[in-house]
Specification:
Layout lengths: L2 H19 L2 H6 L7 H12 L6 H21 L9 H24 L2 H20 L8 H23 L5 H21 L5 H10 L2 H26 L3 H11 L3 H10 L1
Helix pairs in contact: 1-3, 1-4, 3-4, 4-5, 4-6, 4-7, 6-7, 7-8, 8-10, 9-10
Length: 258
């Protein structure tokens, strides 16, 4: 499977997810459903790597994508914003997507999968909420929260269908993407709740930037090792390295140090 076919499959699933949850009024006043390409890539990675991929697995992957869309919609609600129509509709959009994915899970009549995914949803929601509690936690707790938010839903999918060989690589790559985004936001002075906690732990944002760069370099090395262990097809590996986890931070670091 070449890069064009991989991209086409990701786009195709993304369109299917959006069509499954699209609602005209909500789309008019909110950002609409959104699923990151990186998450779709890792949901589809076993398929790209030639594993058995039944219609049931495809449907479950689509359902997990809708869960991501629901959680993303709720993330767009700012707790300090006035209660306006757009904010209210964003909440409703998240509720709509949630209802759709629960209905899809019920329709599969796969109780075990429903239980695993429901447990993951609870864990992710709890960790997202923890960033709004207004307290500074130890660095290890912040990392654990980010880890669960970024990877727990995918891990539930992998664990259920026996795709655990991809788990280390997927975790490392998704965390890499999250920390790369946090680094960009830090440099743009666009502080997320996670950055505020990191700054509080590390005293100054200069040290936060250094910590993030070190984290990215460590994850990059882990990703390289995990790719070798998975023995991915060259085209899949190439797409992962150049489309999913590009390494701009290394050039930025060298520029500053030079």
């Amino acid at each position: 499977m070449n890069g064009h076919q991989i991209q086409s499959k990701i786009i195709s699933m993304g369109i299917e997810v959006i069509n499954a949850v699209r609602q005209r009024t909500l789309d008019q006043y909110t950002e609409g459903p959104s699923v990151k390409e990186s998450r779709l890539f890792f949901l589809l990675l076993p398929f790209f790597d030639g594993k058995n991929w039944s219609p049931e697995i495809e449907a479950s992957a689509k359902t997990v994508s809708i869960v991501y869309a629901a959680l993303h919609a709720h993330d767009q609600v700012r707790e300090d914003a006035p209660i306006i129509k757009e904010q209210q509709l964003t909440v409703l959009a998240g509720d709509l997507y949630s209802g759709i994915y629960y209905q899809m899970l019920v329709n599969t009549k796969n109780i075990a999968m429903v239980q695993q995914l429901a447990s993951a949803i609870i864990q992710v929601s709890e960790k997202k909420t923890s960033f709004f509690e207004g307290r500074v936690r130890p660095l290890e707790e912040v990392e654990e929260a980010i880890n669960i938010i970024e990877t727990e839903l995918l891990m539930a999918f992998y664990n259920y269908y026996g795709f655990t060989e991809y788990a280390p690589l997927a975790k490392q790559a998704l965390l890499y993407i999250r920390y790369a985004d946090e680094l960009e936001r830090l440099q743009a002075k666009d502080y997320t709740h996670a950055l505020l906690e990191l700054n509080a732990n590390l005293v100054h944002e200069i040290y936060t930037e250094h910590w993030l760069l070190e984290k990215l370099d460590s994850l990059h090395r882990q990703i390289s090792a995990s790719i070798a262990e998975c023995s991915l097809d060259y085209e899949v590996e190439n797409f992962l390295l150049h489309q999913i986890t590009p390494h701009q931070h290394r050039a930025e670091q060298l520029t500053r140090e030079g």
